Each structure stands twice: as C-alpha cells, then as structure tokens.
Amino acid sequence: MPTATLPRSAQILTGAERPTLAQIRILRRIATQDVEERAKLAAVFQDGLPGVKDKARLGTLAYVLDRFGDAEEHLDPKDAFCQAILGLVYAELDELKDAANSLTTAAKSFPEAKAELARVHIAAGDLDDAEKAINGVSEVAERDFLHGLLLEARGNIEAAIKAYELALESRAEHVEAAFKIGVLLDRIGDDDLAAEHYLVCSDANPAYLPGVTNLGMLYE
Fold first, then answer.
1. pTM attached to this predicted model
2. C-alpha–C-alpha distance, residues 94 and 89, integer Å
3. Which is nearest to 3 in space by CA: 52, 59, 53?
4. For 17-44, how does the pLDDT look when each residue is reduced to its tens digit (9 = 90+)?
C-alpha cells in the first residue's frame, strides 16, 4: 500500500519521528469511533506500514486496534517507547500493576510516559505515587489536567474544576478537561455551563464521544 493511499490517521506512524503518546491517543479515538477508518487501519496492519522497518510502529497500530496480543509480539520491552506502549496495553487490560511497572521503566528515558504513569497510578488509587509522576510532566496543560484528576480522586471537587479550567486555558481543545468540567457541573445542576463544556467535546476533530453522549442526554 503506497504511502499516498494511507488513511491520514495512519500517516503519523510513517513519519521520520515516532508518534507522540498524545498522537497515539487521538489515533485510538479515531479507530474507536469511526468504523470506516478502523477498517482502513486494520487493512494497513495486515499489509504492513510502507517503508517502515520499525516493528514498534506496527505494534503501536496493533494497540490502537485493540489487538493486544499482536502489540506485545511487535513491541520490544528493551525499548523505552515500546515499554510505554506496553504500559498502555496493560492499562487497557486492567493489569494496572504491570502497566505501572512498564511505564515506570519507560519514563526513565522517555519522559512523555510520566503522564500515562500518573493516569495509571490514579486508576489504581496510588495517589501519592501519582503526584510524584505528575510533578515530572513537562507539558503544562496535561500537568494541570492530571492535577485535576488527582484532586478529584482526593475528593476536592472545587479545586479539581479549577485545575481542569487551567488545562483548558493552556490548550483550548483539551477535550478530556472539558468533559471532566462538564460532568462535575452536570452533577451540581449547572446545565448551561455543563453543556458549554460538552460542546467543546462535540466540536473537536475527532469528537470526544463521552462528551457528545452527555450533551445529548442533557438536551433530552
């Protein structure tokens, strides 16, 4: 399959640099939400990425497509990027201890993994470890968002909303932050402001479906 015929979403896997974890998160969102695009990506996986000898990228595509066994087969655990993707695989399988171990190893030489490590620690309830990981996250919007998740997990809802708002100020298209604010405002009955934040999710490209779903329920 020539590069020119690749779906646009797959072209991040054939660039000179490996994709970022943020790009992979978006690609996974596309594959989850768009049946046609998912079929195209599955065909790419079957045919192989043109001009790419790096098995890590094929393993990444397998992760995007929920083909977790194939992902593990292609990802070299001695490679920090691969360790990070393996951490994401284990997190999806709810194997949070293995996910944390992989992401901790990856983060030693692949700093982007620290944000994913923080998410896993929060999911596991290891909040002190999550805080340590968050403090090592360099991207401002993501760090503020993760602080919001941590504060929410600790029951400090007002401070969590402020942290999510900071994330949105730094990156207006941070759909997860918009969604979280919408949910928390929804709970206290502030429908208008909740809808405003859910609209950020629906207007995004690709749209963030949890926010779109909640917006529909709110309108109903």
1. 0.92
2. 9
3. 52
4. 999 999 999 999 999 988 999 999 999 9
